[in-house]
Amino acid sequence: MKSTMSRVALIGGGANSEHAVSLASADAVGAALIRAGFVVLRLDLDQDGGWRDANGGPLTPAAAVAAIGTCDVLFPMVHGPGGEDGSLAALATLLAIPCVGSGLRPGAAGMDKWLSKLIAAELGVQVADGVLVRAGDPLPQVPGDCVVKPVAAGSSQGVTLVTSADGDDALQRAIAAALTHDEQVLIEERLRGREIDIAVLRRADGSLLVSPPLEIEVPGFFDYAAKYDGSAQFTLPAAITDVELKALQEHAITLFEGFGCAGLARIDFFLTERGWVFNEINTIPGMTEQSQAPRMLAAAGLDYAALLTELVTAALPPPSTMRQFPGDRAH
C-alpha cells in the first residue's frame, strides 16, 4: 500500500509539438492522483524549455530541481522529445529520485522510430520496409504508396501519406514537413491492414498485465487531425481470432521486455496479410482517462485511479524508506 503522504512531482508541457497534449494528460493525472490521496507538486515545461510552477509562474532550473528534490517520486507526463525520450527519467536518476515508467534507455529507443524498427526486427517482430533520410539527402526512390514521418515525434505530428500518383514534388514536401519536427525522417511503405494497439503494464508486484487490444478505424489516414478531431472510431476489444490475439500478446511482451520498459507502454501494430507488423512503442502514452492506454487497461479491470496508483506504487521505494515532510499539501 502507498503512503497517504507520498509526494509526486508531476511534470507536464514540454518544448515540442505535443505540448498541449502533454498538458491535458498531466491535468488529468494530477486531478486523479490528488483524489487517490497523493500529494502532487505540479511543474510544467513551457514551449521554450523554461520551467513553470502550478500557477504558470516562471521558475529557474535550480528552483525546479530543488522542488523536485522534495518529492518521493517523479511522474513524467511530457510526450515527445524532452520527456518521453528519457530526458526526465535521466533527471530523476541524477537526483536519486524514483521515476514512474521507463528509464532513459527504453525511452530514448522507443522515441526513435528508426531505432525502434531495428530493435523490433532483431527481436523477431515484423516491421515495415523503410529508409532513413536527412536534410540534403537525394530523394529516395520509393515504390508505391509511403508514409513520411519524423523519426522522433509523436501524436502523428509531421506525418504525411504520399501515394504513388502524387509524384516527387509531394514526397519532397512531405519530407520538408517532417524535417520541421526532427532532423531525421523515416519513409516507410504504406501498410494495408487493421491498426490495432495493445498496452502492457508492469504492476507493483512485478507481474505483467496485458490489456485487450483496441482497433482504430478512421475514414481516411490516421494523421494528427484524425487523432484528435473525433473522427476516429475505437473498437475495444478488437475483433480478432484467438490465434491472432495470442501472437499479438506474445509480440507485445517481447517488445516490452526487449526494450527494457517499466510502468506502462502502448504498443501499436498493423494486422496485415503477412501477420502482425510493429508500428511503434509509446513509453509515455496519452494519459487522460479517455486515452487509448487507460481505456485498454480499464477493459482489463484496472480503472483509471487504480492504474495511476499502480504506476506510482511500482516506482516508490518501500513506505518505511520514504521521506515525510510536515505540512504536506497538494499544490
TrEMBL record:
Pfam families: Dala_Dala_lig_C. Its main location: cytoplasm. It catalyses: 2 D-alanine + ATP = D-alanyl-D-alanine + ADP + phosphate + H(+). This is D-alanine--D-alanine ligase. Belongs to the D-alanine--D-alanine ligase family. The lineage of its organism: Bacteria, Bacillati, Actinomycetota, Actinomycetes, Propionibacteriales. It is found in: Cytoplasm. Residues 117-313 form the ATP-grasp domain. HAMAP family: Dala_Dala_lig (MF_00047). One of its GO terms (molecular function) is ligase activity. InterPro entries: ATP-grasp, ATP_grasp_subdomain_1, D-Ala_lig_Van_CS, D_ala_D_ala, Dala_Dala_lig_C, PreATP-grasp_dom_sf. The keyword ATP-binding applies. It is an enzyme of class 6 (ligase). Gene3D superfamilies: 3.40.50.20, ATP-grasp fold, A domain, ATP-grasp fold, B domain. Pathway: Cell wall biogenesis; peptidoglycan biosynthesis. SUPFAM superfamilies: Glutathione synthetase ATP-binding domain-like, PreATP-grasp domain. It comes from the Bacteria. Keywords: ATP-binding, Cell shape, Cell wall biogenesis/degradation, Cytoplasm, Ligase, Nucleotide-binding, Peptidoglycan synthesis. The gene is ddl.
